[in-house]
Amino acid sequence: MKTNASGRKDNGNPNRDRTLYLINVIILCLMTLAALCACFFMLLRYRKASRDLSDVKKQIAAIEGKDKTLYTADELESRVAGAKVQAASQTRSEILMQIQSSLESGNSTAAMLRGIFPDDIVVVSEGRYYFYPVLSGLAANGFRSSDFKTDEAGVLQYVGDDEDVSITRGVDISSENGEIDWPAAAEGGISFAMIRAAGRDQNGVLYTDRRLDANIRGAAKAGINVGVYFETPVTGAKEGREDAEYLASVLEDYKSQISYPVAVMMTELENEDGEEAKPRLKKSERTQAVLDFCDAAAESGYRTLVYGNLAQMIMRVDIDKLEGYSKWIASYDGNLYFPYRFSMWQYSTTGQVQGIKGNVSLDATVLRR
Question: Contact, 30 vs 22, CB < 8 A?
Answer without folding.
Answer: no
